[in-house]
Design brief:
- The chain has helices spanning 5-18, 20-34, 43-52, 119-127, 139-152, 165-168, 213-216; strands at 56-59, 64-67, 73-78, 86-89, 108-112, 114-115, 157-162, 171-177, 184-189, 193-195, 202-207.
- It has 223 residues and is an alpha+beta fold.
- It folds into 2 domains: 5-89, no CATH class; 104-216, Beta Polymerase, domain 2, CATH 3.30.460.
- Strands 5, 6, 7, 8, 9, 10 and 11 form a 7-stranded mixed β-sheet that branches. It has a 4-stranded antiparallel β-sheet with strand order 1-2-3-4.
- Helix 1 (5-18) runs antiparallel to helix 2.
Length: 223
């Protein structure tokens, strides 16, 4: 598995700061959590996963304490839909007193949606605004503008999120449900407008409210 240059630097800094034996243990743990992803993993789930792989792991309120074979203690926090199962800390992560709960029922993973063929509905959606709504590369803002617009007109919308879109910057767009044909949708991109390409009707993640994007990737803001 290839590691990014940033990851290599992180591991190198850990090696320099905690010694060879501890660094080997940290590296092994890093590789383990980098080999899996689970947007719904909880602190309890993460601790159980680590114990099942032979680690001395204890769940705390918002993180897991892991005592490595070398005696070094590190800390892991579940990170939602971001890469890896968790983020690794050398010190106990500070808590804000607010625990984020990922609403799994509201986040659909690898879901495909049926495209509507209702021409009257397609025309209505197309005429409600002028495209592009935002410049290319500003789909985070543009998708919210579209969602607000179509919601005001009584339409049901879903956000579609692909973390690997646009050269791994991520891409966000919406689909609008046809009120005359249940579970039939029309994809709308904030730059391109109405889209009938089949790739726009399937996404790694889809959700009804923009707030759920933070559960998937709190750092994603520039796509």
């Amino acid at each position: 598995m290839a590691l990014s240059s940033r990851t290599v630097w992180i591991i190198l800094l850990v090696v320099l700061s905690i010694g060879h034996s501890s660094a080997d243990d940290v590296n092994d743990l890093w590789l383990l959590i980098s080999s899996y992803e689970d947007i719904g993993i909880t602190v309890q789930d993460l601790a159980f996963f680590l114990v099942s792989h032979g680690y001395d792991a204890t769940p705390e309120k918002s993180y897991v304490t892991v005592k490595l074979p070398s005696g070094k203690t590190v800390y892991l926090t579940p990170n939602g839909g971001a890469p890896r199962l968790a983020d690794l800390w050398m010190e106990p992560p500070k808590s804000t007193g607010i625990m984020q709960v990922i609403p799994i029922a509201e986040i659909r993973k690898d879901r495909s949606y049926n495209m509507t063929t209702n021409q009257e509905f397609i025309k209505s959606v197309s005429r409600l605004t002028i495209f592009p709504v935002t410049p290319l590369g500003m789909c985070y803002d543009g998708s919210q503008k579209l969602a607000n617009l179509y919601t005001q007109f009584g339409y049901k919308i879903m956000y579609m999120y692909d973390p690997s879109g646009f050269e791994n910057q991520g891409h966000l767009w919406i689909i609008v449900e046809d009120p005359d044909n249940s579970d039939r949708w029309l994809a709308v991109d904030s730059y391109y407008g109405v889209v009938t390409d089949s790739s726009y009707y399937r996404a790694p993640y889809s959700f009804p409210d923009i707030k759920y994007l933070d559960s998937l990737n709190p750092k994603w803001r520039y796509a």
